[in-house]
Amino acid sequence: MLVAAALVCAAVAGGWGLSRYAGAAPFELPVGPTEWDVSERSWLSNGVLHVGDRRVTIGEDPAAHVVGPSGAYWIDGQVLWFTSAEGGTEEVSDLQWSSMVISPDRSTLALLDGSRGPTDEYGTHALQVVVFDTRTGEQLYRTPDTEPGDWDLADLYEETVPSLDRVSTEHVGIDGVTIDIASGTVTVDDPGSLGEMLFGDR
């Protein structure tokens, strides 16, 4: 009850409502030079990513990975990595978070970024939802920069553990709310949910 009350107050005080991000994209999503067949089954085994008959060595098996039109993305710890269909591997960004989801057609990738939003008084960044086009690397949406209020975000996130549910070319879902990527409009699917408290319009 205490945590829920804190989340509601933080959302109101910090203005955590979502709208179209107007600032410059903090980073671009890398894309590879050639496409591979994303309809092929993919799996990880002993640090090797298998996509159909292709094999790409990426090191230790990460907790989460997705396959896009021209390569694969995975989070090792809290760092986002990319490998192209040709096998070139690069570190993309330290997100300070590990939630990611890709659309069924593999064209849209959503991440939680805890490394670039405004900070609380202890230096913890407010989480931002960020959505990319996996075909071009273009950022399609990011939570706007708004002050997080007088709360210890590290404690808040440890208690609540926000995570992404789904993404498509039009919407992204997180913990009981659906966000329209083009307009930033938030639809509450589950009143009183974590998503509404953290990201709902107020």
Could you explain the architecture of this structure?
With 202 residues, the chain is mainly beta. 13% of the residues lie in helices and 34% in strands. It contains three helices and 15 strands. The protein has helices at residues 2-14, 153-160, 194-199; strands at 42-45, 48-51, 54-57, 64-68, 71-76, 79-84, 89-94, 100-102, 108-113, 128-133, 139-142, 164-167, 171-174, 177-180, 186-188. The chain has a four-stranded antiparallel sheet, with no helix packed on it. Strands 8-9-10-11 form a four-stranded antiparallel sheet, with no helix packed on it. The chain is globular and about 50 Å long. It starts with a helix and ends with a helix. 35% of the residues are buried.
Topology:
Blueprint: H1 2-14, E1 42-45, E2 48-51, E3 54-57, E4 64-68, E5 71-76, E6 79-84, E7 89-94, E8 100-102, E9 108-113, E10 128-133, E11 139-142, H2 153-160, E12 164-167, E13 171-174, E14 177-180, E15 186-188, H3 194-199
Antiparallel strand pairs: 1-2, 2-3, 4-5, 5-6, 6-7, 8-9, 9-10, 10-11, 12-13, 13-14, 14-15
